[in-house]
User: Fold these one by one.
Assistant:
Number 1:
Amino acid sequence: MNKTELIEVVAQNADLKKKDAEAAVNAVLAAIEDALVAGEKVQLIGFGTIEVKAKEERTGRNPATGETITIPASKQIKFSAGKTLKDKVNA
């Protein structure tokens, strides 16, 4: 499912016009994005938790040359599915 399909489903399920559903979906995604940028954890009970984890700088190896390289520190986005979502997917 892509964003356009999600907007269509939200419009149908919430009995909204596509334009209103698009605004709602965009607002939710922007709120999640803003929270993650601010370093906050987004927890949607039953669905899952989205959070930013810091990865330290580390040493790696270039697979083409075998040369040792330094991999810079970065931030990773981690999603952990909630129990309700896991149960529905595994049903």
Number 2:
Amino acid sequence: MLNHKLYWGDLHSHCAISYGHGTVEQAIARAAQQLDFCSVTGHAFWPDMPTDREQYGDIIDYHNVGFSTLAGNWDKLIQLQKEGSKDNKFLALPSYEWHSMKYGDHNLYVPGPDMDLCDQPDLPMLREMMAKAGGFAIPHHIGYAAGYRGINWKHFKEDVSPFVEIFSLHGCSCDEYSPYPMLHDMGPRDWGSTAEAGWSMGHKFGIVGGTDHHAAYPGSHGDGRMGVFAESLTRESLFKAFKERRVYAATGDKIDARMYIDDAFVGDVIKNGGKRKVKIKVQSMDALDQVYVIKNGRIIKRIIPTTHSRCSSGKYRLRVYWGWGKNSERHDWNANLQLTNGCIEQVEPCFSGQAVVAPNTNGVNNHKEALLPHEIVSTDDKLCTWKSITSGNITMRHPTVQSVSMLIDSNIDGNVTLDVNGHKIEHKLEDLLHKGRSHYMRGWLSEAVRFGPLVPIEDCVAEMEFEDEPENDTDVYRLQVSQFNGQQAWLSPIWVER
């Protein structure tokens, strides 16, 4: 397993190819900026759609229009995702969404690049169809109550559903105490539909994140992503890793989180009736808050990493944010950041689209229709240049702020200089250590930038080894990670049988 690489993707995003905003071309171009793979998903079928037009007429109409639109554009969607794919560079996988009140919503996937658009009247027949096609049927926004488009664990089978989606713009469905409650008009989270409830019933499945974004922005930072450990970036390798449950969920930051039990890795089922050797290793993109080892739904180890340390390695994470200002105004950004007395080793874009989880949502701005509203233009070991289009935050709970995260190797006495929109801003790195600094472009109520805090790489690492004893006939171990900036990751379990 040590030879497998970590790849990042979003298998659940939408655009106007069925219903939503933006184009397939925009979605693929934006995904390729910060992901290894994606799927632009079409809304396709709803066999048990409500029929009460007096109460649900608008829902019935826009879904039927969306389904018809996808059917007319299906060949185009398949072709564009073919054209946007190249092994070991970037892959766009075909998919479509099958809604159900009784069974919960499922996204259907095959390795591709081709896929037929076919309906089935119920979940057993859907599973049979996907098994014959060598594909998967993946439940999502599972946390809504059974019968209300949440998962119904009584009907769940692992044959073509090796994992489920537990985080998206809808919220988090991992367990009762997960952050990010369900706020959509589809209702609250129900414990009986959480992943923890499914594991407690004996089901074996992995977990992933996906944006369920409806404005052509797969991988929109903070809205849901998945990590997958695969041998290579090919369709065959990805689907092999999917089947083996070598997957996990994250909000946005690419948190590299790994857990081993004896010789087993994420997604494995092993037998050990004695002591188990548990090994944890986490490399985050910002200061770690806590790392939890969870066994059978209970926290058994809480790792609290060293924070606010002095750096001994000379390596730091530095994040630069831009945005704010009035949400009725468009703000164009042209920026270049220069580092002295050091080296920029990595630049990671943390770009997001408008938080749209349903069509015709207020707050979708026309300037977001640019092919790439945010773009890193160039980087080298001293300089990073980017351009961007933003507007102010929609509300105090709906950010539109963008950022880049850099790994730098530098003396703490070095300087960082940002030239942005005619302003020159300079800081000593030491002045940013564990401290964020803000700068306004045109005075109060105007757009702004924020530097930092500068985080020593030691604050982004957690490692632990310990031994554990059996508890049940089958013990379910999993890992959960949180950073101080609010970014989270949830690993798929390892199952240990006596």
Number 3:
Amino acid sequence: MDTIVTIALGIIAAYLGVGLLFALPFVFIGVAKIDAPAASAGFWFKLILIPGSTVFWPLLLKRWLRGEPPPVEHSAHRTSAQSPPHP
């Protein structure tokens, strides 16, 4: 049992280590490529992005490499607001 826990913790540590190595350049350089308003954000805002970027680094790396824009929200409210008014 100790071996399984040690391996699991090692995998988690490696994942988070790679994530942190990704997050630092991403929040100061890459975030501007996938989210234009974030380009003009201040240092403290970018500092807040580091924990989330560390955890979600595979998804963010994919978007950064592809240059994908931020996703558009699809909700009932947005659909209703974009449809023409009813007569």
Number 4:
Amino acid sequence: MELERINPENIWSAPGYSHVVKAGNTVYIAGQVGRKPDGSLAGTDVESQTDQIFKNLIAALESVGGGLDNLVKTMVYVTDAAHLPGFRKVRDKYLTGNLPAQTGVIVKLGTPEFKIEIEAIAVIP
């Protein structure tokens, strides 16, 4: 099976890994954080970061001809359970109708200013 590795231009530059790997019709999207395309932080609150993450997910999916409806699973990592209501508020603006399976975990992320990170798997028919 041929693998396609993509770093979309409208997602911040990823050092040492690919943002998107397409294997057949399955798409793996690396954990996205609240970084804008220029690398700056979208905001210090979970809602601003989540909004940027969904913009990044859309860009990643569009790079392989898909969209949010193609998501089959998301893995959500938050640094505090108190961030979940803000995450859900923003998520519910982007994901309606056909919802992906979801896993949520409370973690310590590698960079202290990040409150949330989301990775995803999609299928592009």
